[in-house]
UniProtKB/TrEMBL annotation:
Cofactors (names): Mg(2+)
Protein's UniProt name: Molybdopterin molybdenumtransferase
GO annotation, cellular component aspect: cytosol
Stated family: Belongs to the MoeA family.
Annotated source species: Loigolactobacillus coryniformis subsp. torquens DSM 20004 = KCTC 3535
Keywords from the UniProt entry: Magnesium, Metal-binding, Molybdenum, Molybdenum cofactor biosynthesis, Transferase
SMART domains from the UniProt entry: MoCF_biosynth
């Protein structure tokens, strides 16, 4: 008997997923490993920065009292290398040779650049300063950050610049949100592995690496990718195991109404079926359910539907685990080329976009067929053609998701 499913819209399905409570857990990790991790607490300045008066140039440090009547000879009483300190005061017409980034003597008021000075013949401990300068060439202590100032706010995705800032304050560890752990199960007796000999009726498992790479790009950890032949028991054993140690399980294929579509049966028998039929194409059979407190998103096996379903349903969930919005930027775009077909369901097309005079323009990228995969490399956006009996006119406004990492 054919099971009747209750179709809901894309927006309703997304809302059901958005309403799920997700645990946001925090862990402390080395700063060196924190690129693209999300900061879980405000990072504040442990002390003033810089924490000493710093020379901006190679040159000579002088007192304010001696800053007149140039050219004039100074007695060089020391050399201050970057990393060293200088613990005595300069006297009248005394100077210290100083390097960029070095500690400025406490009673020096200015660093005269090396270019404005000349050596004094036969007098190695003397220097002639030719002219003064308006700028003091000294970076005051605390000029960039006062102790306690906010460096990076909680909820920020760290990048190389942010990590350098934390390191500048001597941080070795940082509190971040734990990355969600994701297991991937691809199903289908037709699936071959890379390196296998092509055979009639069989296909290579291209969705496995597709999902794994998309998961990793979303900032989550792929704990395991399992490829299963269509077998109900095998599916149950693997799901049971993977639910225990993962935050999300993504399955692929076997979710329609075929005799071997065991994911469909599993979803129906689950604790909480969220949806198993969408009023959209591709991926009308995309399914989501919760079992043992673990969310399972069952994507369609058709590659175009799998790709689209990942961005619409799985990616926003993965980002929520670390308190972040989806990487997909939602915009309104204009249809640059007419899409002539009409459909009873909303269509989510793989497209490309251009930004012209501040307006996004989108068009279909090659194929709209659910089973095609040739356009996934070059797709830069998804856009929605609402269900209708009439094609949308040229320039019609369409909801568009600009995809990340393109
Ligand atoms: N009688 C009906 N048949 C189908 C319906 C329907 O409503 N009634 N829906 C169609 C639609 S729409 C879709 S979408 C597919 C969804 O099927 P499944 O998600 O159950 O996926 P499969 O049947 O397992 O596979 C579909 C297609 O994709 C290929 N595939 C599967 N896994 C992979 C993989 N890892 N890498 C690459 N390609 C994969 C598979 O060989 C099939 O060609 O159902 C329609 N049928
Ligand atoms: O719902 Mo299916 O993905 O259109 O072929």
């Amino acid at each position: 008997m054919l099971e009747r499913r209750k179709p809901i819209t894309l927006e309703e399905a997304q809302a059901k997923l958005a309403a799920l409570k997700l645990p946001q857990q925090v862990e402390t990790i080395p700063v060196a490993d924190a690129n693209h991790r999300v900061l879980a607490e405000d990072a504040v300045a442990a002390y003033d920065y810089p924490n000493f008066r710093r020379s901006g140039y190679d040159g000579y440090a002088i007192r304010a009292a001696d800053d007149h009547d140039f050219p004039k000879n100074f007695h060089v009483v020391g050399e201050i290398q970057a990393g060293a300190t200088f613990d005595h005061d300069l006297g009248e017409n005394e100077t210290a040779r100083i390097m960029t980034g070095a500690f400025v003597p406490d009673n020096a008021a200015k660093v005269i650049m090396l270019e404005q000075t000349r050596s004094v013949p036969e007098q190695p401990d003397q220097v002639k300063i030719m002219v003064s300068q308006d700028r003091d060439n000294i970076t005051p202590a605390g000029s960039e950050f006062k102790q306690g100032a906010l460096l990076i706010a909680a909820g920020t995705e760290l990048n190389p610049g942010g990590l350098s800032l934390l390191t500048a304050f001597g941080a070795t560890e940082v509190k971040v949100y734990r990355q969600p752990r994701v297991a991937i199960i691809t199903t289908g007796t037709e699936l071959l592995n890379p390196g296998d000999t092509p055979q009639p009726g069989k296909i290579f498992n291209s969705n496995g690496p597709l999902i794994a790479n998309l998961v990793a790009e979303s900032g989550a950890i792929v704990t395991e990718t399992v490829q299963l032949v269509d077998d109900y028991k095998l599916l149950q054993t693997n799901l049971e195991r993977l639910k225990q140690t993962n935050d999300l399980v993504i399955t692929d294929g076997g979710v329609s109404v075929g005799d071997f579509d065991y994911l469909a049966t599993t979803a129906r028998n689950s604790e909480q079926l969220l949806f198993n039929k969408l009023k959209m194409r591709p991926g009308s059979v995309t399914t989501a359910f919760v079992d043992d407190n673990t969310l399972i998103i069952a994507l369609s096996g058709n590659p175009g539907a799998c790709y689209t379903g990942f961005y619409l349903f799985a990616e926003p969930i993965l980002r929520r685990f670390v308190g972040q919005p989806s990487h997909c930027q939602k915009v309104t775009a204009n249809l640059a080329r007419i899409y002539p077909k009409t459909n009873g369901y909303d269509k989510i097309l793989r497209g490309t976009y251009q930004l012209n005079d501040g307006r996004y323009q989108v068009q279909l990228n090659g194929s709209d067929v659910s089973g095609s995969l040739g356009n996934l490399q070059s797709t830069t956006c998804l856009f929605k053609i609402p269900h209708s009996h009439e094609p949308l006119p040229l320039n019609a406004e369409v909801e568009t998701w600009l995809l990340p990492f393109k």
